[in-house]
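Notebook B, p. 112. Complex prediction, attempt 2.
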Amino acid sequence: MKKTLLISFVALATCSAAMAQVKEDFKPASTNQGGKEYPMVNSERIIRAQVTAPDATRVQFDISGVKYDLTKDENGVWTGETAPQDEGFHYYQIWVDGAATPDPNSLYYYGAGRWGSGIDIPAHDEDFYALKNVPHGDVREVYYYSQTNDAMRHCYIYTPASYDTDLNKRYPVLYLQHGGGESEHGWPQQGKTGLIMDNLIAAGLAEEFIIVMDNGSWARPRPAEGAAPQGNGQRRPGLPSGWADGFMNTLVNDIIPMVDARYRTIADREHRAMAGLSMGAMQTKAITMAKPEVFSKLGLFSGGTISVEEADNAPGFREAYDLVFVSYGSREVEKPRGGIDPGKTTADLKASGMNAHYYVSPETAHEWQTWRRSLYQFAQLLFK
Amino acid sequence: MKKTLLISFVALATCSAAMAQVKEDFKPASTNQGGKEYPMVNSERIIRAQVTAPDATRVQFDISGVKYDLTKDENGVWTGETAPQDEGFHYYQIWVDGAATPDPNSLYYYGAGRWGSGIDIPAHDEDFYALKNVPHGDVREVYYYSQTNDAMRHCYIYTPASYDTDLNKRYPVLYLQHGGGESEHGWPQQGKTGLIMDNLIAAGLAEEFIIVMDNGSWARPRPAEGAAPQGNGQRRPGLPSGWADGFMNTLVNDIIPMVDARYRTIADREHRAMAGLSMGAMQTKAITMAKPEVFSKLGLFSGGTISVEEADNAPGFREAYDLVFVSYGSREVEKPRGGIDPGKTTADLKASGMNAHYYVSPETAHEWQTWRRSLYQFAQLLFK
């Protein structure tokens, strides 16, 4: 242990000399495994990483699309720093002599199509998803049989703190979807859904409701060997064509009936909402427009808007929906996306008579801090 | 994709030529990340692993105390095989030029003091923990405040399938502890607690009860910098001296009252059991012997026995406990442990008048298959 501390000190001193401008207020990331000092983050949101690889010739820290070379010391410990990162959660990985591996120091998260490393950069507003001594709901791991898929499926369900003690109460339900390359693990883990809701409810800022977090990309047949990858415009594996339709059938025919049978829901459309991020927002838009008899509120996080024309052309849409929420990270909307300004589109929808809300997460991109903040905003509007 | 398949085929053909005796019926491990072909396991329980590391000079697959060298092909893909493994779950890691990393192909589990790779070797009796279309209980992630620790803590709680629909029913509770270097994640994940119970209950082989899986090593102050590691005879970091006492206070003063307040338990000692594996068994023994007013049944998996003398010398023990269950893996008891034969000790306890049961898991060691089987056996005796 003394040896490790000494090595760390030497590496740290070396770095400080080379980069005198970096603020030496690094702290271990909250996403580290217990007791692991590295990676660290300083108040400038610079990450300092460290990897032990005595026989390697090149070690890199790969985050936000950039690979940073680490520097080896005489003990085979590699250390280096990144450029300042955005606030919030980012996926990353380590490269050791051409092998892409998770960082053995970090906890692991599902995203970018794999279980791997993630790091949380402290945010000015992190209090809203902090673990506090308030009443906590449970996040339940749930297995159920899906007739649509003829398979057992897996989801997470948040029930508020009162659920297990106030047995006469029934609750509205939000169906909350992840993005492409992600899974049902995203919202409960890096999304911090349970903590966000517990804090909101404890502060009296949100109604109590159940949140169902299922997998929008599970229900796919494996492509035949040698078949061309199925395209949906995003060119990611794991996203079959027909993703919205396929998941809609699973959601409407299997998931919602299962949830209404197993949990004390208020099982009508007035008390049922759907939201999602990125691919999940596109699914939300497709499904809510096709099923006005099932839902009455919707949220699109970083994944599209609903125009006046779309609202007019979808049968029953205007009558069915009493809340439309659209959000983006500020870095996503600095330039109009394909000619569309989501703020203007949503303002037009509001002007046309719908209860439409638009939120922009400050200084974040297409990433989890945007979506944590989006849930925080959206949840305060729901079921009131 | 075609290129990857070709590489795999070449690597496979090379291996086959070199090791003609290996049965070519390898299948991807159930513990792999979705869509990952390697590591694979064959019917001889040999693992074939593959790692892409084009610039590395040495890559090893490290499992069950042995490091196996992998062989590099012209595309920088390293492949190799292990000796036959025991049935069930094993932790492992990859070494790339001196860097110990998780295998990017596997799911990650907490054990051996870190989150890292694990692999499940198919077992002849794996049906008892298979995911089936039976009624499933929920495994809940639960946060609560502990006065003893003045901190928020985290556990998992299994509630049986009927819990959310039969609102008039109350349930007995089993407190189930992990081993040293493990955490509250062990039983719900690699332990397969939920699936084991769902299958048992569906088959009518076990009563319905709640299972609380908490962290027996959390409640420790960080050692002061430079302080000698605290010893408890096991010399693992993360196991402070006083682990049984410290956890006993947390369990009796914080966890049990929290569970009895938040869930529909039968809150008396007749309906409360404790069990654990390895360190958790030692905690179970220490705590149940000290607290006969709290528990009435106990299980020790791979972590000790209770002798006639111990039963006689612990005030109230004989009167309080109507079930003592002791188990080991067969490889643990091939030779007597420190002169103690746990089978004889338990038979003597039974002969002295206590309801004592002894179980030996066939051809397994100090590992999860032993503990899955132990839970399967123990659960059938509980609360009947």
